[in-house]
Amino acid sequence: MPVCWWTGVWCFEGPVFVFVPTVGQVTLACEPRHREYSTARTSVVVPVVVSGVWSRRRRADGARNGRSPKLIQVRVHVVSDVHGRSDALPAAAEGADAFICLGDLILFVDYRDHSRGIMGDLFGAEAVGRMIQLRTEQRFDEAREWSRSLWGGLDGDRADIVEAAVRRQYAAMFAAFPTPTYLTYGNVDRPDLYPDFLRDGVHLLDGQTTEIGGLTFGFVGGGLKTPMNTPFEIDDEDYAAKVAAVGAVDVLCCHIPPHVPELVYDTVAGRFERGSKAVLEAIHETRPRYVLFGHVHQPLVAELEIGATRCVNVGHFNARGTPYVLEW
Ligand SMILES: [Mn+2]
Protein backbone atom coordinates (compact mmCIF):
# COMPACT_ATOMS: atom_id res chain seq x y z
CA MET A 1 0.00 0.00 0.00
CA PRO A 2 1.56 3.33 -0.99
CA VAL A 3 2.30 6.12 1.48
CA CYS A 4 1.37 9.67 0.62
CA TRP A 5 4.74 11.29 -0.03
CA TRP A 6 3.71 14.56 1.55
CA THR A 7 1.77 13.64 4.66
CA GLY A 8 3.39 10.30 5.41
CA VAL A 9 0.01 8.64 5.98
CA TRP A 10 -1.27 5.57 4.22
CA CYS A 11 -2.90 6.54 1.02
CA PHE A 12 -5.38 4.09 -0.44
CA GLU A 13 -5.99 5.86 -3.70
CA GLY A 14 -5.32 9.57 -3.07
CA PRO A 15 -5.93 12.47 -3.05
CA VAL A 16 -5.99 12.88 0.73
CA PHE A 17 -7.47 15.81 2.63
CA VAL A 18 -5.22 16.89 5.46
CA PHE A 19 -6.35 19.36 8.10
CA VAL A 20 -3.26 21.37 8.95
CA PRO A 21 -3.44 22.60 12.58
CA THR A 22 -1.31 25.74 12.39
CA VAL A 23 -3.36 27.98 10.16
CA GLY A 24 -6.69 26.22 10.08
CA GLN A 25 -6.29 25.62 6.42
CA VAL A 26 -7.67 22.60 4.66
CA THR A 27 -5.09 21.35 2.24
CA LEU A 28 -5.45 18.85 -0.55
CA ALA A 29 -2.32 16.79 -0.80
CA CYS A 30 -0.94 13.62 -2.30
CA GLU A 31 -0.81 14.63 -5.93
CA PRO A 32 1.75 17.46 -6.15
CA ARG A 33 -0.23 19.45 -8.70
CA HIS A 34 -3.16 19.66 -6.32
CA ARG A 35 -1.23 21.42 -3.59
CA GLU A 36 -1.61 24.73 -5.36
CA TYR A 37 -5.34 24.35 -5.78
CA SER A 38 -5.91 23.73 -2.09
CA THR A 39 -7.26 26.42 0.17
CA ALA A 40 -10.63 26.00 1.67
CA ARG A 41 -9.96 28.42 4.53
CA THR A 42 -11.70 28.25 7.87
CA SER A 43 -11.79 30.92 10.52
CA VAL A 44 -10.87 28.63 13.43
CA VAL A 45 -7.79 26.58 14.14
CA VAL A 46 -8.46 22.91 13.51
CA PRO A 47 -7.11 21.08 16.56
CA VAL A 48 -6.20 17.79 14.92
CA VAL A 49 -3.21 16.74 12.92
CA VAL A 50 -4.90 14.41 10.51
CA SER A 51 -8.63 14.30 10.98
CA GLY A 52 -9.87 12.96 7.75
CA VAL A 53 -8.88 10.73 4.94
CA TRP A 54 -11.02 10.58 1.88
CA SER A 55 -10.20 8.71 -1.20
CA ARG A 56 -11.61 9.08 -4.65
CA ARG A 57 -9.11 8.86 -7.41
CA ARG A 58 -9.59 9.31 -11.11
CA ARG A 59 -7.65 6.55 -12.79
CA ALA A 60 -5.87 6.95 -16.07
CA ASP A 61 -8.51 4.82 -17.74
CA GLY A 62 -11.17 7.32 -16.71
CA ALA A 63 -12.91 5.00 -14.25
CA ARG A 64 -13.50 5.98 -10.64
CA ASN A 65 -12.39 3.56 -7.98
CA GLY A 66 -12.47 4.60 -4.37
CA ARG A 67 -12.47 1.25 -2.60
CA SER A 68 -9.73 -1.19 -3.31
CA PRO A 69 -6.07 -0.13 -3.14
CA LYS A 70 -4.51 -0.05 -6.58
CA LEU A 71 -0.87 -0.55 -7.33
CA ILE A 72 0.44 2.33 -9.40
CA GLN A 73 2.75 0.86 -11.98
CA VAL A 74 3.76 3.80 -14.13
CA ARG A 75 4.39 7.39 -13.09
CA VAL A 76 5.12 10.07 -15.67
CA HIS A 77 6.01 13.67 -14.81
CA VAL A 78 5.05 16.30 -17.38
CA VAL A 79 6.32 19.89 -17.63
CA SER A 80 5.89 22.72 -20.13
CA ASP A 81 7.06 26.31 -20.52
CA VAL A 82 10.31 25.66 -18.70
CA HIS A 83 11.64 29.06 -19.82
CA GLY A 84 15.13 28.74 -18.38
CA ARG A 85 14.30 26.82 -15.18
CA SER A 86 16.87 24.07 -15.76
CA ASP A 87 17.74 24.37 -12.05
CA ALA A 88 14.34 22.92 -11.06
CA LEU A 89 14.35 19.99 -13.49
CA PRO A 90 16.26 17.41 -11.37
CA ALA A 91 13.82 17.71 -8.44
CA ALA A 92 10.86 17.69 -10.84
CA ALA A 93 12.03 14.39 -12.29
CA GLU A 94 12.45 12.62 -8.93
CA GLY A 95 10.30 9.49 -8.68
CA ALA A 96 9.23 9.52 -12.34
CA ASP A 97 9.51 6.49 -14.59
CA ALA A 98 9.52 8.81 -17.59
CA PHE A 99 9.69 12.58 -18.05
CA ILE A 100 7.82 14.61 -20.67
CA CYS A 101 8.58 18.20 -21.69
CA LEU A 102 6.13 20.11 -23.89
CA GLY A 103 8.51 22.85 -24.95
CA ASP A 104 9.27 26.56 -24.52
CA LEU A 105 12.73 26.09 -23.07
CA ILE A 106 14.07 29.56 -23.93
CA LEU A 107 13.84 32.54 -21.56
CA PHE A 108 14.12 35.91 -23.34
CA VAL A 109 12.62 38.19 -20.71
CA ASP A 110 11.69 37.23 -17.15
CA TYR A 111 8.78 39.47 -16.13
CA ARG A 112 9.29 38.75 -12.43
CA ASP A 113 13.09 38.68 -12.12
CA HIS A 114 14.41 41.21 -14.61
CA SER A 115 18.01 40.07 -14.16
CA ARG A 116 17.24 36.65 -15.69
CA GLY A 117 16.86 35.60 -19.30
CA ILE A 118 18.72 36.60 -22.43
CA MET A 119 17.75 40.28 -22.13
CA GLY A 120 18.63 40.39 -18.43
CA ASP A 121 22.01 38.78 -19.06
CA LEU A 122 22.86 41.20 -21.83
CA PHE A 123 21.45 44.47 -20.54
CA GLY A 124 20.91 44.11 -16.78
CA ALA A 125 17.81 44.25 -14.62
CA GLU A 126 17.34 48.01 -14.74
CA ALA A 127 17.26 48.24 -18.53
CA VAL A 128 14.89 45.27 -18.82
CA GLY A 129 12.68 46.74 -16.08
CA ARG A 130 12.33 49.97 -18.07
CA MET A 131 11.31 48.05 -21.20
CA ILE A 132 8.69 46.05 -19.27
CA GLN A 133 7.37 49.23 -17.64
CA LEU A 134 6.93 50.90 -21.05
CA ARG A 135 5.12 47.84 -22.40
CA THR A 136 2.91 47.61 -19.32
CA GLU A 137 1.94 51.27 -19.77
CA GLN A 138 1.17 50.40 -23.41
CA ARG A 139 3.82 52.85 -24.62
CA PHE A 140 4.80 50.34 -27.31
CA ASP A 141 6.65 52.77 -29.61
CA GLU A 142 8.84 53.95 -26.75
CA ALA A 143 9.41 50.32 -25.66
CA ARG A 144 10.54 49.38 -29.18
CA GLU A 145 12.79 52.43 -29.32
CA TRP A 146 14.30 51.54 -25.94
CA SER A 147 14.88 47.93 -27.07
CA ARG A 148 16.47 49.14 -30.30
CA SER A 149 18.84 51.40 -28.39
CA LEU A 150 19.88 48.54 -26.10
CA TRP A 151 20.65 46.17 -28.99
CA GLY A 152 22.34 48.99 -30.92
CA GLY A 153 24.78 49.42 -28.06
CA LEU A 154 26.14 45.88 -28.45
CA ASP A 155 29.09 44.91 -30.61
CA GLY A 156 28.33 42.17 -33.11
CA ASP A 157 25.35 40.81 -35.00
CA ARG A 158 22.13 40.57 -32.99
CA ALA A 159 21.17 37.17 -34.47
CA ASP A 160 24.58 35.71 -33.56
CA ILE A 161 24.36 37.08 -30.02
CA VAL A 162 20.86 35.61 -29.53
CA GLU A 163 21.88 32.23 -30.95
CA ALA A 164 24.90 32.01 -28.63
CA ALA A 165 22.65 32.83 -25.65
CA VAL A 166 20.03 30.25 -26.69
CA ARG A 167 22.77 27.65 -27.06
CA ARG A 168 23.94 28.34 -23.50
CA GLN A 169 20.37 27.88 -22.19
CA TYR A 170 19.83 24.69 -24.24
CA ALA A 171 23.13 23.22 -23.02
CA ALA A 172 22.05 23.66 -19.38
CA MET A 173 18.51 22.46 -20.10
CA PHE A 174 19.35 19.29 -22.02
CA ALA A 175 22.04 18.35 -19.49
CA ALA A 176 19.36 18.54 -16.76
CA PHE A 177 16.81 16.33 -18.55
CA PRO A 178 16.59 12.87 -16.92
CA THR A 179 16.35 9.70 -19.00
CA PRO A 180 14.08 8.77 -20.47
CA THR A 181 12.75 12.18 -21.50
CA TYR A 182 10.28 12.66 -24.35
CA LEU A 183 10.04 16.21 -25.62
CA THR A 184 8.52 18.36 -28.30
CA TYR A 185 8.98 21.99 -29.34
CA GLY A 186 7.19 25.05 -28.02
CA ASN A 187 6.73 28.26 -29.96
CA VAL A 188 9.58 29.85 -27.98
CA ASP A 189 12.12 27.32 -29.20
CA ARG A 190 14.67 26.96 -31.99
CA PRO A 191 14.11 23.56 -33.68
CA ASP A 192 17.19 24.13 -35.85
CA LEU A 193 19.40 24.02 -32.74
CA TYR A 194 17.85 20.93 -31.07
CA PRO A 195 19.92 18.30 -32.93
CA ASP A 196 23.11 19.66 -31.35
CA PHE A 197 21.82 18.96 -27.83
CA LEU A 198 19.90 15.67 -28.07
CA ARG A 199 21.56 12.67 -26.42
CA ASP A 200 20.81 9.02 -25.63
CA GLY A 201 17.54 8.69 -23.74
CA VAL A 202 16.31 12.19 -24.66
CA HIS A 203 13.79 11.65 -27.45
CA LEU A 204 12.44 14.44 -29.64
CA LEU A 205 8.97 13.80 -31.12
CA ASP A 206 6.91 16.09 -33.37
CA GLY A 207 3.98 14.64 -35.32
CA GLN A 208 5.08 11.25 -33.97
CA THR A 209 4.04 8.66 -31.39
CA THR A 210 5.76 6.48 -28.82
CA GLU A 211 4.72 3.92 -26.23
CA ILE A 212 5.18 4.56 -22.52
CA GLY A 213 4.07 1.97 -19.99
CA GLY A 214 1.60 0.36 -22.36
CA LEU A 215 -0.10 3.61 -23.45
CA THR A 216 0.41 5.34 -26.80
CA PHE A 217 1.58 8.95 -26.54
CA GLY A 218 1.42 11.36 -29.50
CA PHE A 219 3.38 14.61 -29.71
CA VAL A 220 2.65 17.79 -31.67
CA GLY A 221 5.09 20.67 -31.18
CA GLY A 222 5.27 24.38 -31.96
CA GLY A 223 2.72 27.19 -32.02
CA LEU A 224 0.41 28.82 -34.56
CA LYS A 225 0.95 32.16 -36.30
CA THR A 226 0.54 35.30 -34.15
CA PRO A 227 1.44 39.00 -34.42
CA MET A 228 4.03 38.29 -31.69
CA ASN A 229 6.01 36.34 -34.30
CA THR A 230 7.69 34.03 -31.79
CA PRO A 231 10.51 31.79 -33.09
CA PHE A 232 8.54 28.63 -33.98
CA GLU A 233 5.07 29.41 -35.35
CA ILE A 234 3.60 27.38 -38.22
CA ASP A 235 0.52 27.59 -40.47
CA ASP A 236 -2.73 26.01 -39.30
CA GLU A 237 -2.59 23.51 -42.20
CA ASP A 238 0.91 22.32 -41.32
CA TYR A 239 -0.10 21.98 -37.69
CA ALA A 240 -3.24 20.00 -38.64
CA ALA A 241 -1.07 17.68 -40.75
CA LYS A 242 1.03 16.85 -37.68
CA VAL A 243 -2.11 16.17 -35.61
CA ALA A 244 -3.35 13.86 -38.39
CA ALA A 245 0.03 12.10 -38.55
CA VAL A 246 -0.25 11.30 -34.83
CA GLY A 247 -3.76 9.85 -35.23
CA ALA A 248 -5.57 8.01 -32.44
CA VAL A 249 -3.57 7.84 -29.20
CA ASP A 250 -4.19 7.36 -25.48
CA VAL A 251 -2.42 10.59 -24.50
CA LEU A 252 -1.98 13.53 -26.88
CA CYS A 253 0.85 15.89 -25.85
CA CYS A 254 1.01 19.34 -27.48
CA HIS A 255 2.59 22.66 -26.63
CA ILE A 256 -0.60 24.63 -27.31
CA PRO A 257 -4.12 23.87 -25.98
CA PRO A 258 -7.09 22.72 -28.00
CA HIS A 259 -9.08 25.74 -29.23
CA VAL A 260 -11.42 26.17 -26.26
CA PRO A 261 -11.93 29.73 -24.93
CA GLU A 262 -11.46 28.84 -21.24
CA LEU A 263 -8.21 27.03 -21.99
CA VAL A 264 -6.64 29.68 -24.24
CA TYR A 265 -7.48 32.84 -22.25
CA ASP A 266 -4.58 34.16 -20.16
CA THR A 267 -5.99 36.00 -17.15
CA VAL A 268 -2.82 38.00 -16.45
CA ALA A 269 -1.92 38.92 -20.03
CA GLY A 270 -5.62 39.61 -20.59
CA ARG A 271 -5.72 38.05 -24.02
CA PHE A 272 -6.61 34.90 -25.90
CA GLU A 273 -3.57 32.86 -26.95
CA ARG A 274 -3.75 30.60 -29.99
CA GLY A 275 -5.24 27.15 -29.51
CA SER A 276 -5.59 24.40 -32.09
CA LYS A 277 -8.87 23.63 -33.84
CA ALA A 278 -7.25 20.51 -35.31
CA VAL A 279 -6.57 19.19 -31.80
CA LEU A 280 -10.16 19.94 -30.78
CA GLU A 281 -11.42 18.01 -33.81
CA ALA A 282 -9.05 15.14 -33.00
CA ILE A 283 -10.50 14.99 -29.47
CA HIS A 284 -14.01 14.55 -30.89
CA GLU A 285 -12.90 12.03 -33.50
CA THR A 286 -10.33 9.88 -31.64
CA ARG A 287 -11.31 10.41 -27.97
CA PRO A 288 -7.87 10.25 -26.31
CA ARG A 289 -7.89 9.70 -22.54
CA TYR A 290 -5.78 12.79 -21.95
CA VAL A 291 -4.70 15.86 -23.88
CA LEU A 292 -1.77 17.54 -22.11
CA PHE A 293 -0.43 20.97 -23.03
CA GLY A 294 1.02 24.24 -21.70
CA HIS A 295 1.61 27.57 -23.48
CA VAL A 296 -1.02 29.62 -21.61
CA HIS A 297 0.80 30.63 -18.45
CA GLN A 298 -2.17 31.80 -16.35
CA PRO A 299 -5.21 30.10 -17.92
CA LEU A 300 -8.79 30.89 -16.97
CA VAL A 301 -9.31 27.13 -16.58
CA ALA A 302 -6.44 24.64 -16.23
CA GLU A 303 -8.43 21.42 -16.64
CA LEU A 304 -11.67 20.43 -18.26
CA GLU A 305 -13.31 17.42 -19.85
CA ILE A 306 -14.48 17.12 -23.43
CA GLY A 307 -16.52 13.94 -23.61
CA ALA A 308 -14.26 11.15 -22.35
CA THR A 309 -11.10 13.26 -22.75
CA ARG A 310 -9.47 15.10 -19.85
CA CYS A 311 -7.69 18.24 -21.09
CA VAL A 312 -4.94 19.47 -18.74
CA ASN A 313 -2.70 22.52 -18.81
CA VAL A 314 0.30 21.00 -17.02
CA GLY A 315 1.37 24.39 -15.71
CA HIS A 316 3.92 27.13 -16.19
CA PHE A 317 7.08 25.38 -14.99
CA ASN A 318 9.09 28.58 -14.91
CA ALA A 319 6.80 29.91 -12.17
CA ARG A 320 5.81 26.69 -10.37
CA GLY A 321 8.86 24.50 -10.61
CA THR A 322 6.71 21.38 -10.13
CA PRO A 323 5.51 18.83 -12.70
CA TYR A 324 2.06 17.48 -13.51
CA VAL A 325 1.94 13.84 -12.43
CA LEU A 326 0.21 11.18 -14.50
CA GLU A 327 -0.10 7.70 -12.98
CA TRP A 328 -1.72 4.49 -14.12
MN1 LIG B 1 4.41 28.86 -25.60
Description of the molecule:
- By secondary structure, the protein is α/β, with parallel strands linked by helices.
- The chain has 3 domains: 60 residues, no CATH class; 182 residues, 4-Layer Sandwich (Purple Acid Phosphatase, chain A, domain 2), CATH 3.60.21.10; 36 residues, no CATH class.
- The chain has 8 helices and 20 strands.
- A 6-stranded mixed sheet has the order 10-11-14-17-19-18, covered by helices on one side.
- Strand 15 and strand 16 form a beta hairpin.
- Helix 2 packs antiparallel against helix 3 and helix 5 packs parallel to helix 7.
- The protein is globular, with a radius of gyration of 21 Å.
- The two termini are 15 Å apart.
- Manganese (II) ion binds next to loops.
